[in-house]
User: What shape does this take?
Amino acid sequence: MDPQFITPFIKSIQNVFSTMLHMPVTINQPAIKQGNSATYDVSGIIGMSGDVVGSVVLSFPKETASKLITAFCGMEFPVDSPDFADAVGELVNMVSGSAKGMFVDKDVSISCPSVVIGTGHQITSRSDTPCVTIPCTTSQGDLAIEIAIRESNAASKAA
Assistant: This one.
C-alpha cells in the first residue's frame, strides 16, 4: 500500500481526537493485518470510492469505546444503545472525512458509516487490497485504525 494513503489518516485521527475529545493519540508501529477478525469488539467502518477504493475501520475495545464516546458526547450511553453506535459512526466519519480532504490530487468519496459491535466479528476486505493496522494509544485506552485502500483501476489507467 502506498504510504501516501496512510499519512492522511494518522494526521486526521490526531487532529480529530485533539479537537473533539481533547486528548492526544500516540501512533504505534503499523503492521500488515493478517486474517479478517476485527482488532477489537467495536468497529466503525467507512467505505471509500473514486480514485481511491476500499475501507477504513476504527476498532476499539468496548471499554475504550465507552470512555471515548462519553468524552465525545459529554454523556454516557450504553453500548447497546443506538446513540452509542451513532457516536462511533460519527467518530469514524470525522476521521475519514478529514483524511479524505488530504487526498488533494484525488477524487475521493466516503460512504455513510456502519458500526459492528461484538466479540470476534469479521471485516473482510478485497483480496487484492492489503490492510494496514495502525495501533493507537490514548489516555482512555487503545484503539486501531485499519486501512484497506488502494488506487482504483480507473485512476491508475488514467495516470
About this structure: The CA atoms of residues 57 and 135 lie 12 Å apart.
